[in-house]
């Protein structure tokens, strides 16, 4: 399938009690620009075509369970890993325990609202060449990896032991799914994908295509939102936005 016929991954969207504060944390940590989102909240823009846009939107529900997706930041050396950890703590992050073992070399942190992320040790061959934001690591089945590969037109770059990963044809950040055992669904996810049809695409036709790939329809937003809430084959929610306007950041 040609990339022009697929959805585009517009952003990784975070529910946030304070979107501006959380956006500033991530913009400073990643060295990127933060701008207002015309829809709601703020955007942290990608610094290159191979990086993922982050979106922070206001939400009232407090975080109560471990997120089912998180960012993995890469390191070129032990000193660089230590600098990234120190910078995150300086900006308001904190160490957190998700059951990691003492001998594991990556460092697990949380942002100011408790969203987990990892600072990966140097020498990780799987993330070599992916950039600072090396991966978005997700809890999910092999079927979901296949689904998103088709939905986004991103090739599978890993498919072994029910673990999958996809990557844009341009390279950059990988999206990975760890396979079983999977975490229980603790309700609304604080992180989700925002996807959009191509600029000249049709939202209704894209809904139908995603349904044919195994998605389900959760809620069709009204004309005031332009969003259609859907779920992937694992039941994890994502939003399909209106087609992107050429040259628009939102």
TrEMBL record:
<protein>
    <submittedName>
        <fullName>Putative enzyme related to lactoylglutathione lyase</fullName>
    </submittedName>
</protein>
<dbReference type="InterPro" id="IPR037523">
    <property type="entry name" value="VOC_core"/>
</dbReference>
<dbReference type="Pfam" id="PF18029">
    <property type="entry name" value="Glyoxalase_6"/>
</dbReference>
<dbReference type="InterPro" id="IPR041581">
    <property type="entry name" value="Glyoxalase_6"/>
</dbReference>
<dbReference type="GO" id="GO:0016829">
    <property type="term" value="F:lyase activity"/>
</dbReference>
<dbReference type="InterPro" id="IPR029068">
    <property type="entry name" value="Glyas_Bleomycin-R_OHBP_Dase"/>
</dbReference>
<keyword id="KW-0456">Lyase</keyword>
<feature type="domain" description="VOC">
    <location>
        <begin position="129"/>
        <end position="243"/>
    </location>
</feature>
């Amino acid at each position: 399938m040609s990339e022009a016929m697929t959805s585009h991954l517009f952003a990784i969207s975070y529910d946030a009690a304070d979107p501006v504060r959380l956006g500033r944390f991530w913009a400073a940590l990643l060295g990127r620009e933060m701008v207002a989102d015309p829809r709601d909240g703020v955007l942290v823009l990608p610094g290159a075509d191979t990086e993922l846009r982050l979106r922070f939107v206001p939400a009232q529900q407090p975080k109560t369970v471990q997120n089912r997706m998180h960012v993995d930041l890469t390191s070129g050396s032990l000193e660089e890993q230590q600098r990234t950890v120190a910078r995150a703590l300086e900006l308001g992050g904190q160490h957190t325990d998700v059951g990691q073992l003492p001998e594991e070399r990556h460092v697990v942190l949380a942002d100011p609202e408790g969203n987990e992320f990892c600072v990966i040790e140097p020498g990780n061959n799987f993330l070599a060449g992916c950039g600072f934001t090396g991966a978005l690591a997700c809890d999910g089945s092999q079927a979901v990896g296949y689904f998103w590969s088709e939905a986004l037109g991103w090739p599978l770059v890993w498919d072994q032991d029910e673990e999958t990963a996809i990557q844009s044809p341009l390279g950059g950040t990988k999206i990975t799914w760890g396979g079983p055992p999977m975490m229980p669904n603790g309700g609304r996810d604080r992180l989700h994908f925002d996807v959009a049809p191509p600029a000249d695409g049709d939202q209704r036709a894209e809904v139908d295509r995603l349904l044919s790939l195994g998605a389900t329809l959760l809620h069709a937003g009204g004309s005031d939102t332009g969003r259609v809430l859907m779920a992937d084959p694992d039941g994890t929610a994502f939003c399909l936005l209106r087609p992107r306007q050429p040259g628009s950041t939102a």
